[in-house]
């Protein structure tokens, strides 16, 4: 029981400060029928979470926490876009993937990946 608590705490710590990569692509497609000043913004995020890869409760909880981080990021991205470059913002799609890593070249855990698409009207 004590070991599970330590593993859960370690997983939570990994989620609190994940090493993340983020890619943002802003596209405007001429002639695509979109209103003037509207562009699509694509945001991709990925990070690694150290966690057991078995089907234990700790592994399930760590994956749920990682998905929560990705969904939370998608939910807050419009606030950032509106603060920087958009007058209006709408979330269009969310794609989340989890891939297990069994500890070959890195610690046991999983990669969390998220891709979010937005349509914004530029300021």
Task: Give your account of this protein's structure.
The chain is an alpha+beta fold and 123 residues long. It has a single domain, classed as Threonyl-tRNA Synthetase, Chain A, domain 2, CATH 3.30.980. The protein is 35% helix and 43% strand. The protein has two helices and four strands. The protein has helices at 2-16, 57-84; strands spanning 20-27, 38-50, 86-102, 108-122. It has a four-stranded antiparallel beta sheet, with helices on one face. Helix 1 (2-16) runs parallel beside helix 2 (57-84). The protein is elongated. The termini are far apart.
Query: Percent range for helical residues?
Result: 25-40%
Q: In terms of structural class, how would the helical and strand content be classed?
A: alpha+beta
- The total beta strand count reads 4
Q: Please give the CATH architecture.
A: 2-Layer Sandwich
Instruction: Kindly report the average pLDDT value.
Output: 81
| Spatial separation of the terminal alpha carbons | 54 Å
CATH topology: Threonyl-tRNA Synthetase, Chain A, domain 2
Regions with pLDDT < 50 over 5+ consecutive residues? 1-17
Properties at a glance:
123 residues, alpha+beta, Threonyl-tRNA Synthetase, Chain A, domain 2, 4-stranded antiparallel sheet, 4 strands, 35% helix
Topology:
Elements: H1 2-16, E1 20-27, E2 38-50, H2 57-84, E3 86-102, E4 108-122
Antiparallel strand pairs: 1-2, 2-4, 3-4
């Amino acid at each position: 029981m004590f070991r599970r608590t330590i593993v859960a705490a370690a997983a939570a710590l990994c989620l609190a400060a994940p090493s993340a990569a983020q890619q943002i692509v802003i596209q405007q497609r001429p002639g695509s029928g979109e209103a003037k000043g509207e562009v699509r913004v694509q945001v991709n995020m990925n990070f690694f979470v150290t966690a057991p890869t078995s089907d234990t409760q700790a592994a399930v909880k760590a994956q749920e926490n990682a998905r929560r981080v990705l969904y939370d990021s998608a939910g807050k991205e419009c606030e950032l876009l509106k603060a920087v470059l958009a007058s209006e913002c709408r979330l269009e799609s969310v794609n989340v993937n989890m891939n297990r890593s069994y500890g070959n070249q890195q610690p046991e855990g999983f990669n969390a990946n998220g891709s979010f698409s937005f349509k914004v009207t530029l300021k």
